[in-house]
Amino acid sequence: MKSLTRICLRRNINKLSKPFSSSSYLCFQQIGHCNFYSTSSTQSDIQKIFDDQQYWDEIRSNNLKINSSSPTGLFENRYLTNSNGLIKYSAYCLKLAQGLVDKMHKDTSKEGLKKYIRRMDELSNTLCRVIDLCEFIRASHPKPSFVDAAQKCYEQMFEFMNVLNTDLVLCKTLKKVLNTPELLSSLTEEELKVGKILLEDFEKSGNFMENTKVREDFITLSQQISVVGQEFINNVDYAATNYIKINTAELDKSKTPSIILNNLHKDISMKNYKIPINSHGPYSILRSCPDEKIRKQVWAALHSCSPEQIGKLKVLLHLRMVLATTMNFPNFASYQLEGKIAKTPEHVMNFLNSLVQVVKPKAFKELEPIRKLKIEELNCQNDVVSVRPWDRDYYSTLQSIKKRRLTDQDDVSQYFSLGSVMNGLSNLFSSIYKAKFIPVCPKPGETWNNEVRRFNVVNELDNDSLIGVIYCDLFERHGKTSNPAHFTVCCSRKLFPDENIDPTLTQTTTDPNGNLYQIPVISLVCNFSTSQKDSHGNKLCFLQLSEVETLFHEMGHAMHSMFGRTDLQNVSGTRCATDFVELPSILMEHFAKDPRVLHQISNHYLTCEKLDIETLNKITHQNRDFEFTEVYQQLKMAILDQVLHTENPDDIVKAYHDLELKMEILSDDVSTWVGKFGHLFGYGALYYSYLLDRAIASKVYHHLFALDPFSSEAGLKFKQSVLQWGGSKDPWECLALCFNKPELAKGDEKAMKFIGNTSSNL
Q1: Nearest residue to 593 via CA among 698, 523, 504
Q2: 280 bridge partner residues
Q3: How many angstroms separate the CA atoms of 553 and 602, rounded?
Q4: Which 3 state secondary structure label does DSSP give 494?
Q5: Is 287 helix (H, G, I), strand (E, B) or coil?
Q6: Quick check: 129 and 16 in contact, CB under 8 A?
């Protein structure tokens, strides 16, 4: 994941697409009771397409009639009507890429060298359009044939990319461009930034060494890491066993409520309850069973993986260590952190340990009421009793009953239908960023499922000109991953007149100066439940407040991609430092927790009433009962990530258990959860980024939005200081602009301390 496409790949965020202008929104005539979308589509349409299934079905049916003679491919790419088309598209892009490489090898003229960095970016964009598309298809497409084709194309492109990363001719020519004053003076700041990034990545790929074997080893290791890592990530959702067997007599005498026991099935011998892992049964037992031994057994089963999965992780860590030492780094964490905000593993651990000192006492305090309940129920004389992971849900439930919680979360969720939340998001972005969503019915074949909704994001300050496209696959579906995800299918990039542009493959827009841009295409994938139905049989999707927060988080990534419109794709949108990329998404979590925002987006599905501020204040206060405990859990994960990528222990599970016991709070020394920690692949040695960005986001929200979360002045400030730059400006320079503190641009210890002072408000 280096050089030409490293910035694209390192975040699990992807790219691809067809010609589209700001004047070509799909318009529909009125049929039946449906008012179909148009350029004047009201925001109530947004709510209806999610909350009224009949409305959506009629729109799709009408659209099918209109476009039946001109079906399109996935994301309007004419190649992608079937899996074979994906292979053809990959071959087409590979041919374009090779042509660009040949041109850069041969054209050493002055004009050729002036365009050199831009051509490298064009090459990167050509590869990313396939690699990122394949990443999305592998994770989300329901057809195995597409998934298999995507895996094949991904591996082929990745291998080609790694060969380029060790191409000495490309590297030496780039050095020449960056070391020739006459050429430097002709480069834009953005080109210079991208050139330096690519040179750093070339050198991290071994190009600073003339040793051919080193370069060959790098290619081989990178390819192996990609394959093993994908195998690891594909199996993180699988438990070690499909069923949990609990002795019938022990569970029956445990005083578990009969309403829970009656829904459990016994095996043929009747000696054991046989409870499927993927059912509500295990979670019901964790909440209601007084017997700690049984809860421990259930919790361990839910959080354990197979020995084979641990084996895959061990191989992944070993390969990464070999790669790092091959590149003359002491460990993979040092290799990964070069060029990041935190810079070194020592700085990361200093940051994490400082947070531990702040957060740990607060987490202990949060768990103290639960610990006292445990002492009381066990009738212990000794206060040396700790709260374990399998205790939390059970004693939290007891605590809730004792407190007589104010509001039933199910009742609260009825104020937050998926449609009302999406409509609320559009209103919020309109208020703070002057951008809104316009729903557009996808053409036949444009999406991977009929329930996918499409939004065009438009700029209200520029006659609703097109900014980008977001595809929303949000409803639960059999076989669909349960983890929410954001994919960049195609990023923003300026398209220059002398480039080889196929207008049937790239959705474009024109800025006020007449420049043509490839628009960002984003896919949001969630798995929200539609188990409830109204009196007309419509599926209803109500969101818990935690799910509202999830949706806001993923939309934060999407809007970063929308606003980060740069000339070069290597620094577009979310293509910024990995330990800075979570800032916009975590900032959106603050909006999702603000009672003023929740009040505005709430809309009871029957009465259309909003949830009052007083109730929301009490609910959000209740939901903060374990906020520091949650942060501490993230701290443990971030430290584990550092330990595994610096020490590469022989016994991974033991290292995990040792760390858990050392960290004390909610210690797990029974499961093999480390093999289910999927971010070890995508964020290897960089998981601390969540906490660093959480600290920054807290600082930003309190600085800009605390007085008014709907402030257009604050939104404009954040957009102009952070979002619009993508990765083209140093993150510390962005923060210096955001906080009006020029001294932060140094990114030194004082800057880190300034951010760290927010740690108590994570």
Answers
A1: 698
A2: none
A3: 18
A4: strand
A5: helix
A6: yes
Order of all β-strands in the sheet with 508-510: 493-494, 516-518, 508-510
Distance CA 719, CA 721 (A): 6
Q: What is the pTM of this model?
A: 0.81
Q: Please provide the average confidence, as pLDDT, over all residues in the chain.
A: 86
Q: Which of 692, 1, 659, 676 shows the shortest CA–CA distance to 320?
A: 1
Give me the pLDDT at residue 461, please: 92
Q: Which residues pair with 539 in a beta bridge?
A: 533
Asked whether the beta carbons of 591 and 709 are under 8 A apart, the reply is yes
Is residue 349 classed as helix, strand or coil in its secondary structure?
helix
Closest alpha carbon to 476 in 532, 420, 426: 532
Determine whether 554 is an active site residue: yes
Token code pair at residue 530: 């539609």
Pairing mode of beta strands 435-440, 516-518 = unpaired
Q: Nearest Cα to 727, choosing from 567, 572, 601?
A: 572
Q: From residue 468, how far is each of 163, 392, 555, 592, 663 by CA, in Å?
A: 32, 43, 13, 23, 44
Rounded distance, CA 11 to CA 576, Å? 10
The lowest-confidence range among 280-284, 491-495, 564-568 is: 280-284
Residue 291 pLDDT more than 80?
Answer: yes
Distance CA 479, CA 143 (A): 11
CA distance 139 to 480: 9
Q: Which two tokens stand for residue 227?
A: 């394959």
DSSP conformational letter for 544: P
Q: Decide which of 734 and 65 is more confident.
A: 734
Angstrom CA distances, 22 to 244, 397, 516, stand at: 55, 52, 12
Look up the CATH architecture of domain 3-11+77-234. Answer: Up-down Bundle (1.20)
Distance, in Å, from the CA atom of 642 to the CA atom of 230, rounded to the nearest integer, reads 20
Is 329 a residue whose pLDDT tops 60? Answer: yes
Report how far residue 505's alpha carbon sits from residue 495's, in angstroms, rounded to the nearest whole number: 13
Angle of helix 281-288 versus helix 389-403 axis, rounded to 10: 60
Name the CA radius of gyration of the chain, rounded: 26
Average pLDDT over residues 505-527: 89
Helix (H, G, I), strand (E, B) or coil at 484: coil
The CA angle 377-382-388, to the nearest 5 degrees, is: 60
pLDDT (average), residues 636-664 = 95
> Where are the domains positioned within the chain?
3-11+77-234, 243-303
Q: Check 190, 191, 451, 554 and give the catalytic one.
A: 554
